[in-house]
Amino acid sequence: MRRALLAVERGVDESEALELMESADYEVVEIVPVRKIGEGRTGISTGKAEEISERAKEAGVDAIAVYGRLSSSQAFNLMKESGVDVVDRDKLILEIFALRARTPEAKLQVKMAELTYELPRLRELIRRIRMGEQPGLYGYGEYEVERHYDHVRKLRIRIGRELRKYSRHREVQRQGRRRWGMPVVSLAGYTGAGKTTLFNALSKERRPVTGHAFTTLTTTTRTMWLGGDRHALLTDTVGFLSGLPHYMIEAFKSTLEELKYADVVLLIVDASEDPAVVRRKYETSMEILQELSVEPPRVLQVLNKVDRVGMDGVVKVAAELGMRDYVVISAKERLGMDELRRNVLRILEAEERQEATASPEAGAV
């Protein structure tokens, strides 16, 4: 485990930053509040950069983690001033992805995101070498860096081709499911909301639940019972996170697209958290679903962890979020599962009636 100093903007949720640091196997030795991240030559004020650099040396940390997005130039400047590695929020998330990736497709998706992150940093490194600077902890020559830059560009192209093959394979699978007539129910929600726990409850699986961010990076599909003789395919997907850059969403697009083609999307919300945190995570989730062109009538809001806050607490959360159509559950305690199944079936039957009405045969005499 690496030891790190963590810089967080005042007013930002420290708990999420600490959760991500732990998920990336960092030990946070100190949290340093800063006024603003992303401005100036180091991404933080000159005085605060000097203070953090001094504290990092005194504590003997391996890295300075800045919980925000730094430009290539800012990261190099802070690294040069502090003498230790600098990890911004994007890099932190990528490190978690790399730890969690298990399947060949997930590893390719993570690699694509990593290379996209690396390219502007390589350009900055080349610029600094040409200016005669010693760029922080790196001692590469211009020729070696330019060769590596070309290698990264070509590797991104090759990985892009491979990911498109996976995407085509998914489309073939979706066509097979449509011919089979089995509806698809997909789980969505902020990372840590309890999607995998609910997946296990509905599918009778025993997938590992770690309590860390991004337990799931690939889609897993199993059969779930809806009642009577009705069944559906249940799919678990990668969790959401606020402030994800477009290139990360793009790298996992083929995985996230499962949500777009699902017959029902269960949006899992952790109702046990602070109301302001619940709102931020819920709004982030809704924005991502909108970006993926998921149709609102197919989305069912699922308020999880009623065992922690009670029914009154969950109803209050729903009212504050303006929810009208929602289901209350505890995935861990298996509470509300029958009600959840009934509501999934209700949405599916409404879609089936709509399709039957719109069918050309419906108007035939």
UniProtKB/TrEMBL annotation:
Organism: Conexivisphaera calida
GO molecular function: GTP binding; GTPase activity; metal ion binding; ribosome binding
Functional note: GTPase that associates with the 50S ribosomal subunit and may have a role during protein synthesis or ribosome biogenesis.
Binding site for Mg(2+): 196, 216
Binding site for GTP: 189-196, 214-218, 236-239, 304-307, 330-332
Hflx-type G domain sequence ranges: 183-352
Subcellular location per the Swiss-Prot or TrEMBL entry: Cytoplasm
NCBIfam families for this protein: GTP_HflX (TIGR03156)
PROSITE patterns: G_HFLX
Swiss-Prot/TrEMBL keywords: Cytoplasm, GTP-binding, Magnesium, Metal-binding, Nucleotide-binding
Gene Ontology CC annotation, any one: cytoplasm
Metal-binding listed as a keyword: yes
Domain of life (superkingdom): Archaea
Pfam family, any one: GTP-bdg_M
UniProt name for this protein: GTPase HflX
Main subcellular localisation: cytoplasm
Subunit: Monomer. Associates with the 50S ribosomal subunit.
Record-linked SUPFAM superfamilies: P-loop containing nucleoside triphosphate hydrolases (SSF52540)
Family membership noted in the UniProt record: Belongs to the TRAFAC class OBG-HflX-like GTPase superfamily. HflX GTPase family.
Gene: hflX
Necessary cofactors: Mg(2+)
Keyword Magnesium among UniProt keywords: yes
